[in-house]
Amino acid sequence: MAASRKRKAPSTRKDYEGLAVNGNVESDKEQNKGNVKRRKHEKAPSHEVEYLEEKRNLEDLWQVAFPVGTEWDNMDKLHEINWNFSNLENAFEEGGELCGKKVYLFGCTEAQMLKVNDVEKVILIPVVVAVCSPVPPSDKIGVKSVQREAEQIIPMKSMKMAWMPYIPLESRQSPVERLHTEIYTIGCTQRRSALKFLKVERIKQYDYCLPYLQSLKPSEDEQDTVVHIMYPLEPPVVCEFDWELDELEEFTDDLVKEEELSEDQKDKFKEYVKMQVKEKKLAQRQTREARKKAIEDMDPKTRSALENMRLYKFYPVQTPDTPDISHVKESYINRYYGKAHVVL
Fold first, then answer.
1. Shared domain check, 133 and 263
2. Which residue intervals are annotated with compositional bias (Basic residues) in the record (predicted)?
3. Predicted TM-score (pTM) of this structure
């Protein structure tokens, strides 16, 4: 008779612990098998793919063109509004106004009262001027303001400015020797962080800078017959005298009648006006002579470039994020460049 096979009961505590451990291992294996089966049926969590908007090739062109004559404290205000210069970018595309041409760009700003979020406020509008020319328009900067008596024409480099080549975004990873561009912008290497070390007069000089151009034609100032009078009294007598249209004796009598000038100051006032007229006529004559000499000394290539130069003035395009500027656009650039041929 075969002996019956019976499982031996654990006789010690160690035996009980061994059984407990083995039981747990077997249980864990069964559970893991179930987890593996469940994982096979579970779907991986779906992640929405985020696409970054691709940068346009000339997207930062308007920002690279230094806004000449803008106060340093106002530079950040140009970026408070999301201005769009796609019209400038499109001008360099095939069929555009500037496509295939050598172009020199500079920035400037125009302060205008505009409605932003139904509130009227003064806004600095960035503007870009494009000069189509085979040679740089000028390597000089004009410094002129109402407060300054004399006009200064100084080298760009004295204000840390220069015409710098603009490299489109898609070409910025290319080796330097392979780079070629037909676009140049006025750049300024003056660091804003270093302004605190400059004298106030030097900082203010930047506020009155204007891109300079040696015109072949007489400027408006050369033909202007008006002098701005500020006769030193308390309060001062402020007026404008036109030596072609006004008669000095009659002009002075009218000021006395209006009680802006006392009778005992009449003769001194007339002498003051005569001196102001004489100084302006002298300045105009010197300007004419300097212009004629500059033209005589000019090489034929530069003169031809000035005669055939085309000026384009770009304003930001209208978008839902920007205020309406259609009513404030104008062709005037500055006293040296005069008016643009095209306003966009």
1. no
2. 1-11
3. 0.69
